[in-house]
Write a structure and sequence with these properties.
With about 450 residues, this protein is α/β, with parallel strands linked by helices. It folds into 3 domains: about 5-140 and about 260-325, 3-Layer(bba) Sandwich (FAD/NAD(P)-binding domain), CATH 3.50.50.60; about 155-260, 3-Layer(bba) Sandwich (FAD/NAD(P)-binding domain); about 350-455, FAD/NAD-linked reductase, C-terminal dimerisation domain (Enolase-like, domain 1). The chain has 14 helices and 25 strands. Strands 3-2-1-7-20 form a 5-stranded parallel beta sheet, with helices on one face. A 5-stranded parallel beta sheet has the order 9-16-10-11-12. It starts with 5 loop residues before the first strand and ends with a helix. About 45% of the residues are buried.
Length: about 450
């Protein structure tokens, strides 16, 4: 074999964290990335969207400050300055990431890689060999074959909307999932007239059915067209069919296509190398092993859970398996998905971990539950007002009291949900969680209140 112990194909969250962990563990790692280090998340996804959303929140807070005793005159935003700050954040974090890889002894090669088979990848005009290969090629936005969408300058994906030269006066978002909700929150906060057209009967379909309406009510200035199917797009006009069968339309200056993402399983040799995959992703076991010996896959390309935090954990599991020799049938780290939290960084936020009430019931598990408004938290009221939308829901197994799910809507939801992940990962019961002490006053205390409200 060559001079490397591990070759990693893709420099997004799964790829770069696997490289860090393996380098820290003493392996000689070659990390291949054809674009910018950090992947979609750092460059055109998680980080830039959160940066712009934070600017939008500052704008909202300045506008609403009077009721909290702070008055600002002639409040305005500067989209160009917001974009400049976004670029600065991304570039500095990308530089910091490169230094982290270097610190761990990782060699980063800016080149497109092609898997030739177990232990062999072609990149940069030569064939690189190593005993272990990790595939982390990520995912791409889905562009459905809606008539009038392809080649239409008014129709953009999330990457295109992030770099738009100006804030659109009217924005139509096709798709009410995570991406759609976050961009709708951003631009509605900046004054755009935003309408979301969603084919399903509720936004963010994986949310608990009692919580999704709370999120929707919190997005007060966004118009939702639920249960509607888009049929065609003409220039900036989106024609859709309502659930009653009537044709309707939305006039927009820009149309965001936000119907999801698909794993990148093509054009890098997966089929030719003999990998077991489908359009839904690469097949992996609980240690992220593929069907090919010495080849692991992590992150979005597996299709298991298209979240950066899932990619992080997958990377750690794969790295641990590689460091252990990749041959252990039992023991070691394995990937568990029920304790992976998710977050929607809208205005307001939403987050959850574990099973929803509906998922638990579909598995034949009887549940006990409690759902409380975040107004039970004095700090939430003090910082957000008494009319702000927010709620917390805890779902537990009725038979043994084990906590199955924690779901939050409202400000700070994304910063609270890790606590729910710990409760579920450690398989705590209601009586166990009652003994956990939360600082006061905090918003996360609402989780403890909900636990106590179950019985």
């Amino acid at each position: 074999m060559g001079k490397h112990d591990v070759i990693i194909l893709g420099g997004g969250p799964g790829g770069y964290l696997a490289a860090e962990r393996l380098g820290h563990g003493g392996k000689k790692v070659l990390l291949l990335e054809k674009a910018d280090l950090g992947g979609t998340c750092l460059n055109v996804g998680c980080i830039p969207t959160k940066t712009l959303l934070n600017s939008a929140k500052h704008y909202i807070h300045a506008q609403e400050g009077a009721k909290f005793g702070v008055t600002a005159d002639k409040v305005s935003y500067d989209w160009t300055a917001m974009q400049a700050w976004k670029t600065e954040v991304v570039e500095k974090l990308r530089g910091a990431l490169a230094l982290t890889e270097k610190k761990n002894g990782v060699e980063v090669l800016s080149a497109e890689g092609r898997l030739l088979g177990p232990g062999r990848i072609e990149a940069g005009g030569e064939v690189h060999e190593a005993p272990a290969v990790v595939v982390a090629t990520g995912s791409s936005p889905v562009m459905p074959p809606i008539p009038g969408a392809a080649g239409n300058p008014r129709v953009v994906d999330s990457t295109g909307l992030l770099s738009t030269a100006s804030v659109p006066r009217r924005l139509c978002v096709i798709g009410g999932g995570v991406i759609g909700v976050e961009f709708a929150s951003l631009f509605s906060a900046l004054g755009s007239n935003v309408e979301i057209v969603e084919m399903l009967d509720e936004i963010v379909p994986f949310m608990d059915k009692e919580q999704a309406p709370v999120l929707r009510r919190g997005m007060k200035t966004v118009v939702f067209r639920l249960g509607c199917r888009v049929e065609r797009i003409e220039d900036g006009t989106v024609f859709y069919r309502t659930k009653e069968g009537a044709e309707a339309r939305v006039e927009a200056d820009l149309v965001l296509m936000a119907v999801g993402r698909r794993p990148n399983v093509e054009d890098w040799g997966a089929k030719e190398a003999g990998l077991d995959f489908s359009p839904k992703g690469i097949a992996v076991d609980e240690r992220m092993r593929t069907n090919l010996p010495g080849v692991w896959a992590v992150g979005d390309v597996t299709g298991k859970s298209l979240l950066a935090q899932t990619a992080y954990r997958m990377a750690e599991v794969a790295a641990a398996d590689i460091l252990a020799g990749g041959g252990a049938a039992k023991g070691g780290q394995v990937m568990r998905y029920d304790a992976v939290p998710w977050a929607v960084y809208g205005i307001p936020e939403a987050a959850g971990v574990g099973l929803t009430e509906q998922e638990a019931l579909s598995r034949g598990v009887a549940v006990r539950k409690a759902m409380l408004p975040l107004r039970v938290s004095g700090r939430f009221c003090a910082e957000n007002g008494f009319s702000a939308q927010g709620s917390v829901k805890v779902v537990a197994d009725a038979a043994n009291g084990r906590i199955l799910g924690v779901h939050v809507v409202g400000a700070y939801a994304s910063e609270m949900i890790w606590g729910g992940a710990v409760l579920i990962e450690q398989e705590l019961r209601i009586q166990d969680a009652k003994q956990v002490v939360f600082p006061h006053p905090t918003v996360c205390e609402a989780i403890r209140d909900a636990v106590w409200a179950i019985e």
